[in-house]
Amino acid sequence: EWSTILITTHQDLGPVMIHTSTFPNYILAKENNKVVGRLEFEIEGQTMSIMHTYAYESGKGIGSLLLATAVELAEKKQYIIRPVCSFARKYLDKVTPAAIVDHSTSNAPV
Q: Which region holds residue 32: left if phi is over 0, alpha if psi is between -120 and 50, else beta?
């Protein structure tokens, strides 16, 4: 199941299309029809494990945009987020309510 959201973000980005899929479990960011970032996640029960976050252009807020989308998806589906990716851990520590983040198992290697 794919869904698409149009978002205009950070001043360094034009309109960015965010595509989410629950099979495969990806969130893609596209700018001008070019993939500029990807977030990979796994779902087990009510837990969303964020495995990897890739931003193909640094400093534009792409990783944060992908993670904000993942948080929105988790809240909508009432998932607990398990950040495996180190970037996800740092981001979630700053901006996400602790109630939806499981840090007990997030120390796994990236």
A: left
